[in-house]
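Task 17 of the worksheet. Students: predict the tertiary structure of the chain below and write it out as structure tokens. Keep your answer in the requested format; marks are given for formatting as well as content.
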Amino acid sequence: MVSFFSRCFPKRRKGQQQQQQWKEIEARDLESRPSWNAPDNTLLLEAFEWHVPDDTCHWRRLQHALPGLKEIGIDNIWIPPGCKAMNSSGNGYDIYDLYDLGEFDQKGSRTTKWGSRRELEDLVEEAKSLGVGVYWDAVLNHKAGADYPERFQAVKVDPNRRNVEISKPTEIEGWVGFDFAGRGDQYSSMKYNWQHFNGVDWDESRRENAIFKIHAPGKDWAQDVGKDNGNYDYLMFANLDYSNPEVREDVLNWGTWITNELSLSGMRLDAAKHFSAGFQKEFIEHVRKTANKDLFVIGEYWSGNLKDLLGYLQQLDHSVTAVDVPLVVNLCRTSYTKGGDLRKIFKGTLVQSKPENALVSDCRRCGKNCYTDNNLL
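Model answer:
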């Protein structure tokens, strides 16, 4: 009888075998699955991209789009760094003045690429009325577009091993003088000079491009940064020195100021791999204490190495959320692999190890080589 039914219903028997196989697979993988003991997810929209038209209308466009975004389930919007850039078309990552949100006539315009301060405030008010949170993109690693150069001692470093000096100290001329003449002392009286930085990439006197570390007592790269290239403190432009108490105080004050001015729900710390993790921790604690105790903070520490991400989170006492770059890599590889296995998608990811600190993001330009391009965060 068994033989008769086996021959009459072979598909049913095969289906039962497959079902049993899946149960065995699930049992084996149970311990490796992520723990979901984490707060409910919210949906964050990147409300800009690099090639937005340079027409100073973005804040108005975004305000007009907000009701529709709310209707489709957007909880928070991440807006670009709306501080004054080194020129009128700059996206804000070439940051000049943290305290100019499109209000003062500096660097060729009053507005930023994105619009005026008044239009930014209108956008924020609209978001608040709809219950949509606003996350600010905070560029705190460097300054660009200095008002004048200064002369100081510096040494060249090996670009592939930044902790190795390859020249003797010599005098160079670097663009490190910031007086913010258009703003004056409004909001902040801080002016920047060479003592507030630890590195530049241009010697005006010799018209030479290199990575120059400023040479003076107490000057060095921050040590609590990414270890790529030996030390990844220096990224671009004039690199801020967070061992300088005046720099720390000014940026801490800015964090409180902008969070209160714009009723921010969150911040993204740009280039988190490239400036002091100790200062980042201090900054977050300060802003949560003085402006918004529930401020949501994203640390843009771009690394496909889970160990690096866990180390960064530990340095900040898990006070931030980090982009789950390993998950981006896994998704990319699986999508380009014939017969890709989704059961392994969480292997070696933040979602698996620290789900409460993992930000899951898309990556639009992740090609077949699975390069983790930092185009989203």
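Marker's comment: Confidence is low (pLDDT under 50) at residues 1-9, 371-377. The domain at 42-140+247-359 is CATH 3.20.20.80 (TIM Barrel).
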